[in-house]
């Protein structure tokens, strides 16, 4: 990207919104202060804006994000990076209407991109008017995916962008962070859409071979995740299948029931890609996939699937230290289900609510939520559940309840549930789940100062986890366990297991 192009675009955007360089600098500083009142006010000056416009320097990642938010443009539209695959470049001076202000200086329109420049999904979506235009749905972040769009076409382009960037290992996506403030809108909009939705009825055709084959592939991908532990190669395989084979079908004209079925399988696979990213510790990637999966679930009309996606977002929020948001998301999922018969998803939402409450120190409320979860789980018949819900079984639920009891400070009960989880998971060859629950057993021993037993249980957890792709959840659990053992590191056994954790499970290459 040449300095000349950057100067043209940045200056043009500023003048379009009738801002001087000092005014733009002030707006960037104000937005940064408003987003994070506890941080240092951004030191943006008119001189710095001038340097950006002249191409003498590049905005830092933080200033770039704020600049994009103020000017309602993406970095590519501002000329600060090449377009991502499938990204359409639009400028407000090419979309003027009587309600939009005119630029102060004559615009120099950019060369429009042809349909051949777009991915198959973006090309068809563009024909249906799903381009990234200026307006209330403009993404305020430099990596797309955090906006819950009212337009399905916009959603398809966004998922396509995320998936293709993921497959090609684009640094901007992989370095993207989790944004707590992005969660309120999607959960609210999904709940409102679910409550207002009218069931159009009508049976799905049993001979939808395409849908059936996509579901078969989903089963293969889910087994890669649940049994083999996922990993980045598996996730990129899911992303490539999603962008090359599933999303293009949704952009074609389809009968209503076929379209809903396609949206459903697309939501399932987008969720799975997000969950794999979550488990790999790439939280910004995961959040973007999950938000877009929620929007696709709305199009499908499957409230159970939408609530399942909210469960994933709740799990992520709590794990990242935002249990209040995790609690809100779990409860939103329950409310969205209403009177729907969905015992597996409701069980999951109740255990995630229990976990959030336990982390917040609300032990009695957590115990009540665990009781609700167990009663709902008694109604679950795994064979009757959709493919994506079949992981919600005894090893999973017992393990999640064990986590809540551990966080609530009840080591004996936590260990009882954890043992059930480990035994069931090992029978199913689910090493990741078994390793996670084994760490709870070790923590229980540490909480009761039985260091010898804690060390032995820790070695067992690490033995189980060998050969499974590194999991962010496992890394978090083993780090917590290590921190509990550090006060006892003068004991030889504790010292040795701490060294093993640092050397293997928490080595930089494994995180």
UniProtKB/TrEMBL annotation:
Q: HTH cro/C1-type domain spans which residues?
A: 44-78
Please name the Gene3D superfamilies in this protein's record. Answer: lambda repressor-like DNA-binding domains, Tetratricopeptide repeat domain
An example Gene Ontology molecular-function term: DNA binding
Which Pfam family, just one, is annotated for this protein?
HTH_31
From what superkingdom does this record's organism come? Bacteria
Q: Which InterPro entries match?
A: Cro/C1-type_HTH, Lambda_DNA-bd_dom_sf, TPR-like_helical_dom_sf
* Renumbered residue ranges of the record's region Disordered: 79-120
What is the name of the protein in this document?
Answer: Helix-turn-helix domain-containing protein
Say which species the protein is native to.
Parafrankia irregularis
């Amino acid at each position: 990207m040449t300095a000349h192009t950057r100067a043209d675009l940045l200056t043009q955007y500023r003048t379009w919104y009738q801002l001087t360089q000092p005014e733009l600098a002030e707006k960037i500083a104000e937005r940064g202060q408003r987003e994070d009142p506890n941080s240092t006010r951004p030191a943006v000056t008119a001189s710095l804006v001038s340097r950006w416009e002249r191409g003498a320097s590049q905005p830092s990642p933080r200033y770039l994000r704020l600049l994009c938010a103020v000017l309602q443009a993406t970095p590519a539209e501002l000329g600060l990076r090449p377009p991502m695959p499938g990204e359409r470049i639009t400028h407000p001076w090419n979309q003027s209407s009587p309600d939009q202000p005119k630029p102060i200086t004559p615009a120099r329109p950019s060369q429009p991109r042809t349909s051949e420049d777009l991915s198959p999904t973006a090309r068809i979506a563009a024909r249906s008017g799903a381009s990234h235009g200026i307006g209330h749905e403009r993404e305020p972040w430099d990596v797309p995916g955090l906006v819950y769009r009212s337009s399905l076409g916009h959603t398809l382009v966004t998922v396509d962008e995320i998936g293709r960037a993921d497959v090609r290992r684009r640094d901007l996506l992989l370095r993207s962070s989790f944004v707590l403030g992005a969660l309120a809108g999607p959960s609210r909009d999904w709940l409102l859409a679910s409550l207002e939705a009218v069931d159009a009825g009508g049976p799905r055709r049993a001979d939808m071979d395409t849908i059936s084959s996509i579901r078969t592939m989903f089963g293969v991908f889910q087994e890669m995740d649940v049994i083999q532990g996922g990993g980045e190669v598996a996730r990129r395989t899911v992303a490539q299948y999603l962008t090359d084979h599933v999303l293009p079908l949704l952009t074609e004209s389809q009968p209503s029931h076929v379209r809903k079925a396609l949206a459903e399988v697309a939501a399932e696979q987008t969720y799975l890609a997000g969950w794999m990213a979550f488990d790999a510790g790439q939280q910004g990637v995961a959040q973007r996939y999950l938000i877009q999966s929620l929007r696709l679930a709305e199009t499908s009309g499957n409230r159970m699937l939408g609530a399942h996606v909210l469960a994933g977002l709740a799990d992520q929020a709590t794990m990242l230290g935002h249990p209040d948001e995790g609690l809100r998301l779990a409860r939103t999922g329950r409310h969205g289900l209403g009177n729907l018969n969905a015992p597996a998803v409701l069980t999951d939402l109740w255990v995630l609510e229990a976990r959030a409450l336990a982390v917040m120190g609300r032990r009695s409320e957590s115990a009540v939520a665990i009781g609700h979860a167990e009663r709902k789980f008694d109604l679950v018949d795994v064979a009757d559940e959709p493919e994506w819900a079949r992981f919600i079984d005894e090893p999973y639920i017992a393990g999640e309840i064990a986590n809540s009891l551990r966080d609530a400070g009840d080591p004996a009960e936590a260990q009882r549930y954890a043992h059930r989880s480990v035994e069931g998971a090992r029978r199913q060859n689910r090493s990741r789940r078994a390793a996670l629950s084994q760490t709870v057993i070790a923590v229980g021993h540490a909480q009761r100062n039985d260091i010898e037993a804690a060390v032995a249980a820790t070695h067992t957890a690490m033995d189980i986890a060998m050969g499974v792709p590194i999991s962010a959840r496992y890394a978090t659990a083993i780090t917590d366990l290590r921190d509990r053992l550090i006060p006892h590191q003068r004991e030889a056994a504790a010292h040795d297991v701490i060294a093993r954790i640092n050397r293997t499970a928490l080595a930089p290459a494994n995180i």
